[in-house]
Specification:
The complex is a heterodimer. By secondary structure, chain A is an alpha/beta fold. Chain A contains 13 helices and 11 strands. Chain A starts with 8 loop residues before the first strand and ends with a strand. The longest helix of chain B has 8 residues. At the A-B interface, helix 4, helix 6, helix 7 and strand 5 of A face strand 3, strand 4 and strand 5 of B. Strand 5 of chain A pairs antiparallel with strand 3 of chain B.
């Protein structure tokens, strides 16, 4: 008999790898994942072998083998940076169906270290283009009809969405720059953020709208400071069924709603450059939770670029259509601002972004709602908010797929 | 003529073959569904609009309209030496959309590039048997 899975499970622990950011000594995806796994189990007070279900992009099976797990549920859904929000949705369904009680959602990604690895492993889109005559799928639409035209990295494509938003709604580069400025204000309260200060990064510390506009053009209208970082990161969260949640020492953060959706894979197929499937995944998550955007006290939205977060704000009903950047106006979404706080860890723009940022959204959401988000150091005000509810939106691909969660604290 | 020094795909010898064959004659060939009459791109063996497999190919006008664009200042691979260049999505006159490097515009004056501008396809020889389509703004 189907039942609403709302609150069938909670997140009970969240942790990162020992080091994140620009690692001096390179680490692999697996090394970062295992560090995060060990840390999250320590925080949860369980052993690795207590985990019954494993969720990871591309390699849940490899992680289970490496760690000697004996999972009864293996999920390698890999649809970009939103995969981890989608993993939580799938875990919620599996727990609600009684298939398992304890799950880990895990990611290790050497976004920065990767560039120093010996060649010969898997290759990214730019390198695969050089091999395109060799062994590419002749029917891959991106290989055939998109990548020959000098694009590859995410900014080369997302920039087209920002141009269209500016055309349709009259938004400006200054409007989008405010997103980067306010997000930086949060990063300056997070000592683990790459852009925490001038000491942690030459471009770190306080920035202005003018600084964003003056930063190097990457793909007009995107400037460097409109773009997220590319760093190393490992992260993990533990989910527990309502039945066993009391066994954990961590405060439960309930999964009230979860939704997933996609609108395309290749940007050739985007129906509308100023929308994402967060409109659908958000509506599904709100409906499951019996809540709406007006009930959200915190928003954590994938900010691969300033434009990504702005469009997402519109899709989740946090602003009106075409006015996404208004959520950040005058620093409203920043520390001590008059609006709801947004991307309190410093975002992909200024905290960390390993390539698939959705894991970092989950970790920050858990810490905020569990009341343990205080990363402040002596003499520095921290980033903990009073929020009791949060909407979390992962975005994957090129504005392609989304996973939305509505989370609450008791 | 100058050697084509940009990446070019090995033309899809299966589903998209009529598109690439058309390029050799300077024609834009597109797939269309005879059940629902809608054009689609990229080429498929079934219609993404109605789900049927009743696909035919027809010669399109070769005209379209600029939907959106960006100016690439970093570039990728062999394109790096061309920066800045304008990439664009073109709404085809007959429906759906393609991607290209846009010609006939000034990459240093993006504010003057007009969304909605009429564009026309042109084909560059990229190999012995391969022609690559580009689009050019033909009216302001």
């Amino acid at each position: 008999m189907p039942s609403n899975p709302s609150r069938a499970a909670a997140i009970v622990a969240a942790a990162e790898s020992n080091e994140i950011g620009y690692l001096e000594t390179p680490k692999t995806d697996m090394m970062l994942a295992i560090e995060a796994l060990q840390n999250v189990c320590r925080e949860a007070g369980i052993g690795v072998h207590d985990i019954e279900a494993v969720f990871a992009t591309t390699n849940a099976n490899e992680i289970a083998e490496y760690t000697g797990m004996d999972p009864r549920w293996i999920d390698t859904t890999s649809i970009g940076g939103c995969s981890y929000e989608v993993h939580v949705a799938h875990a919620l369904a599996g727990i609600n169906a009684g298939m398992f009680d304890i799950a880990v959602v895990l990611n290790g990604q050497a976004g920065y270290s990767r560039r120093n690895f010996p060649r010969g492993g898997t290759s990214g889109p730019t390198r695969s283009m050089e091999r395109v005559r060799g062994n590419a799928d002749p029917q891959s639409p991106d290989t055939m009809y998109l990548m020959p035209y000098g694009v590859g990295g995410a900014p080369t494509l997302y920039s087209h969405a920002m141009t269209r938003h500016m055309y349709e709604f009259g938004s400006t580069k200054e409007d989008f720059a405010q997103v980067a400025v306010t997000t930086r204000d949060w990063a300056m309260l997070n000592p683990r953020a790459v852009m925490y200060s001038k000491e942690t990064h030459p471009n770190g510390g306080e920035i202005t709208v003018q600084d964003v506009l003056d930063s190097p053009l990457i793909a007009w209208p995107l400037n460097l400071l409109d773009c997220c970082l590319v760093t190393d990161h490992g992260g993990a969260v533990i989910l527990a069924s309502e039945r066993v949640v009391h066994r954990f020492r961590g405060k439960p953060v309930w999964i009230d709603g979860a939704g997933e959706a996609m609108q395309h894979t290749s940007m050739l197929e985007i129906p509308d450059f100023t929308t994402t499937s967060a409109k659908k995944s958000g509506a599904r998550a709100y409906a499951m939770a019996g809540m709406g955007p007006q009930d959200m006290e915190l928003a954590l939205m994938y900010d691969s670029f300033t434009v990504t977060a702005a469009i997402t704000a519109e899709m989740l009903g946090l602003t009106r259509r075409g006015e996404g950047t208004s959520l950040w106006d005058d620093g409203k979404a920043g520390p001590g601002g008059s609006g709801i706080p947004v991307n309190t860890n410093g975002g992909g723009l200024s905290f960390n972004h390993s390539g698939r940022y959705g894991m970092m959204l989950l970790i920050e959401a858990y810490r905020q709602l569990a009341g343990i988000a205080e990363d402040g150091v002596h003499g520095v005000k921290g980033k903990q908010t009073a929020a009791r509810s949060a909407v979390v939106n992962g975005a994957g691909g090129t504005l392609s797929a989304t996973g939305t969660l509505v989370l609450t604290a008791d | 003529m100058a050697e084509y020094d940009k990446p070019a795909p090995f033309p899809d010898p299966f589903v998209g073959k009529p598109y690439w064959d058309g390029g050799k004659e300077g024609k834009l060939m597109l797939p269309r569904c005879t059940s629902c009459s809608k054009t689609h791109f990229y080429p498929r063996s079934m219609c993404p609009h109605c789900g049927r497999d009743t696909i035919e190919w027809f010669e399109a006008s070769g005209y379209g309209f600029l939907h959106t664009f960006a100016v690439q200042h970093r570039g990728v691979g062999a394109w790096t030496k061309e920066v800045p260049y304008v990439t664009a999505f073109i709404d085809l006159m007959e429906g759906d959309r393609v991607f290209t490097v846009l010609r006939g515009v000034d990459p240093l004056k993006p504010e003057e590039i007009r969304i909605g501008a009429k564009c026309r396809i042109e084909w560059d020889q990229a190999g012995e048997d391969t022609f690559m389509p580009y689009w050019r703004v033909v009216e302001e």
